[in-house]
Amino acid sequence: MPELPEVETTVRGLAPVLEGRRIESIELRRADLRRPFPVDLRQRLTGARVTALSRRAKYGLIDTDRGDTFVFHLGMSGSWRVDPVEIGKHDHVVIETDEGRRLSLNDPRRFGSVDLVRSDSLELVPPFAAMGPEPLGQEFDGNYLSRALQGRKAPIKALLLDQRVVAGLGNIYVCDALNLAGIAPGKAAGGISKARLVRLAEAIKSVLLEAIEAGGSSLRNYVRPDGELGYFSSKWRVYGREGKPCPRCSAPVLRRVDSGRSTFYCAKCQR
Ligand SMILES: [Zn+2]
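# zinc ion complex -> structure
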């Protein structure tokens, strides 16, 4: 499932193809993904020039010179392909640029989404309106976490997954950051000392940046024949590594399942 680093890598891979280019055509090969496509999507994007690409939480943002932002989410299985050899049944949106480059949004399970929002009101509409800060932004640090978690009795893991506390974190990188910081996933958030929250904020940035770097280098060194962007084999610390040695203390990594979601952690060194 694509998480923040995969979305960031995708945006970086799309930027050289799209930035400054005019959208020659946009083909919608079905009416919806998780939600229906906006009815005026084709009309508003055809002929528009792309001015910037960016990311907010797990959403990719493509700004145009008409004041619109094309917002995409990769859901469970979405990815963009650059200049695909052929368009298949899972390619639902195909964009062609004025340079004749083709981009397709491929999503077999169709949990992704595509929306069009006025750029100047992006931060005012759902889901962006209620979102906390970006984990890689300057605002996000130990001081912020200490304020946001003060008096909260919920487990730290649940609050890090709450998009109102911090935007764009998913299960994989929350498990890994808690391991790196040596904090037990079930610990009551409000009871964690300031010094440990400082370490936690640094650990979150570190696991995300490492994954983005890995994605960036796989993008540079390894272009798949189908042009797929954004997926790469990550070296996770504890996620998906039940029974393997903890990278901090070598005790076996444990896995716990609550409400269908796995938590990977080390019971020996995460307190
Ligand atoms: Zn350990």
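# post-check
DSSP finds six helices and ten strands in the chain.
The chain has a mean pLDDT of 93.
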